[in-house]
Structure prediction request, 561 residues.
Amino acid sequence: MAVLLVAEINDGDLAMDATAKAVSAAAQLGDVTVLCAGADCSKAAAQAATISGVEKVLCAQDEVYGHQLAEPVADLIVSLAGGFEHITAPATAGAKNILPRVAALLDVMVISDAIAVVDSVTFERPIYAGNALQTVKSSDGKKVVTFRTSTFEAAETGGAAPVETIATVGSNGLSTWIEDTVAASDRPELTSAKIVVSGGRGVGSEENFEIIKALADKLNAGIGASRAAVDSGYAPNDWQVGQTGKVVAPDLYIACGISGAIQHLAGMKDSKIIVAINKDEEAPIFQVADFGLVADLFEAVPELTAKLG
Amino acid sequence: MKVLVPVKRVIDYNVKVRVKPDGGGVDLANVKMSINPFDEIAVEEAIRLKEAGKADEVIVVSIGVKQAQDTLRTALAMGADRAILVAAAEDIHTDIEPLAVAKLLKAVVDEEAPELVLCGKQAIDNDMNATGQMLSALLGWSQATFASGVDIDGDVARVTREVDGGLQTISVRMPTVVTVDLRLNEPRYASLPNIMKAKKKPLIEKTAADYRVDVSPRLEILATSEPPVRSAGIVVGSVDELVAKLKDAGAV
Ligand SMILES: Cc1cc2nc3c(=O)[nH]c(=O)nc-3n(C[C@H](O)[C@H](O)[C@H](O)COP(=O)(O)OP(=O)(O)OC[C@H]3O[C@@H](n4cnc5c(N)ncnc54)[C@H](O)[C@@H]3O)c2cc1C
Ligand SMILES: Nc1ncnc2c1ncn2[C@@H]1O[C@H](COP(=O)(O)O)[C@@H](O)[C@H]1O
Prediction:
């Protein structure tokens, strides 16, 4: 069975981790063809071709795909849909923007955030912020699925799939890109980092987040935040972990000054080891923590930073 | 300009969700239900557009069981002008799928001709994050998802979107479907007089059959289960002990 997988591409580069994780999910369904769409996607296509388990890479190159706007990219995917039984993608913000549109154009339901492939028509997905898991069986002719990347191992690299340049379908001009506000960072990306250090409202200010950053840098970790920290302006929106932010499952997650609301837990409770540092011993975060430390984070976090490594 | 805001009745975000012992879904009987938090933000945004003189009328619509009337009254009390209830299910445990919701919303849009639809980014029960995108596709309109800023200027809207790398700003042609994220605004509380007034605002009832939309599900729910629970951990007494434990576990 043929599976189309829409690659995650940022500024012409393949998001290798997210795409490779989605490949290992999609490979359980059939032969995977990766679609790279971009203003210049030759580099991303070459990177995608190295992922083991990829049979073929399609490269759709046009200015209109440069910023992954939903309308033209969805039209492109629909134009290719005839040859595929499954249309899949990693469950990134980009794909969640595009794939439901594709599904509606094909008159099928979308299956968002699948965490397991049961068989070619049956998938498991979390609902209610991960407080329940649902197994759903699709009766649609085509299955449109996004895969939650934190639950799949990345496929290896070392492959050499052929790359084919394909015709594009143009734009209807419904939307136009204006600008991206993206903070450059040398830190590991949140969703692929082995260790994540997160700060919540307890951190108290943007300046105080330096304490969190110092620990993260010591551990070569990614940085996360609770919604309260983001809403209060202590941290940028792309650091938010949770039901409506990013879902992470690192080897080690250190929550500092985070109470542990279910919406936050939804984004990190599958981490291998969870550490919680909170001055309130009643904080719900301690119910999921492997190691809890009841302490003032302004003392404990710098001390931890000093004593590690 | 008319603004249409679809609002969903969902389990309140503070309620601890329990899976029914027979695996047949989540228990919703005698559980507090509320307006989906994202939809509250969408209603707030629509009302602000009206207050700013950019919108003339705010229409709220909910699809599902009759009890969604309460959800609509909440939106009316915030300041929406009138409401449409599309009855599409009898049992409170029946969730209408985003594709069917989008088809019903399209039918409402065809009738009401709004220029803007403000949806929530996601319903906190099914966590699908799909309806707005699907509606936009069915209408052939532009879409702007995960909005944390919306600025309407004539026949275009400038929308700031929360994306994985930070923020993206796009410009979309009107009419459009915008899905709203948490940081777009802080919804107001309805005052008591407004709650009373809302009781007299128009609320009409329709059915899915009135719109000739088939709402039968495409996804059959085979099972609903509790997620694996984490085994309880330990509380350490000091940073030194924490460091030792982390080293033992090979975590650092
Ligand atoms: C629809 C919806 C979606 C949501 N999505 C998300 C989401 O994706 N992610 C998310 O995180 N939240 C989300 N939330 C919000 C969530 O419900 C909580 O409000 C939020 O997670 C709380 O953040 P917090 O733990 O930082 O703040 P609080 O709950 O205020 O907790 C702060 C904690 O810091 C501790 N503290 C304070 N000072 C110190 C100190 N000096 N040292 C040590 N500890 C200290 C306190 O004891 C407290 O436990 C969502 C809510 C809704 C309604
Ligand atoms: N049954 C419904 N009635 C009204 N609006 C809905 C319904 N289902 C979804 N929506 C709208 O679509 C948004 C996204 O929902 P979903 O795609 O289910 O995550 C919600 O925030 C609502 O604005």
Q: What stands out?
A: The radius of gyration of chain A is 20 Å. The first strand of chain A starts at residue 2 and ends at 6. Chain A touches chain B through 91 residues (CB under 8 Å).
